[in-house]
Design goal:
The protein has 126 residues and is mostly beta strands. Helix content is 0%, strand content 53%. The strands form two sheets. Strands 2, 4, 5, 6, 9, 10 and 11 form a seven-stranded mixed β-sheet that branches. Strands 1-3-8-7 form a four-stranded antiparallel β-sheet, with no helix packed on it.
């Protein structure tokens, strides 16, 4: 079992920045992807970014086209924490952001997540 807790959400003006954190507890496995998703009211949950590691050293990152160049996902294996640095925020980024982890390797990073955090609200004003 893996437990995920997000933090760092809040209210920010357009063009501003926020840094989200996802603290994981329980057993984790190298090579298993962790990701960030978001869901706005009335919309389906969408993929934002993901990170995976090969042998615990090399990190591979993936981004949705809508956030590429503005968001950066990173991880600290020693702290079992994943971060999402969000810059140049836009009103359309407003959503509840969820951290997610895979139970086992699936070969995909945009789908197939088994564990989810409670979510943290991000609101970007015009």
């Amino acid at each position: 079992q893996v437990q995920l807790v997000e933090s760092g959400g809040g209210l920010v003006q357009a063009g501003g920045s926020l840094r989200l954190s996802c603290a994981a507890s329980g057993r984790t496995f190298s090579g298993v992807a962790m990701g960030w998703f978001r869901q706005a009211p009335g919309k389906e949950r969408e993929f934002v970014a993901a990170i995976s590691r090969n042998g615990g050293r090399t990190a591979y990152t993936y981004y949705a086209d809508s956030v590429k160049g503005r968001f950066t996902i990173s991880g600290d294996n020693a702290k079992n924490t994943v971060y999402l640095q969000m810059n140049s925020l836009k009103p359309e980024d407003t959503a509840v952001y969820y951290c997610a982890a895979q139970k086992g390797s699936t070969g995909y990073v945009t789908t197939g997540y088994d564990y989810w955090g409670q979510g943290t609200q991000v609101t970007v004003s015009s």
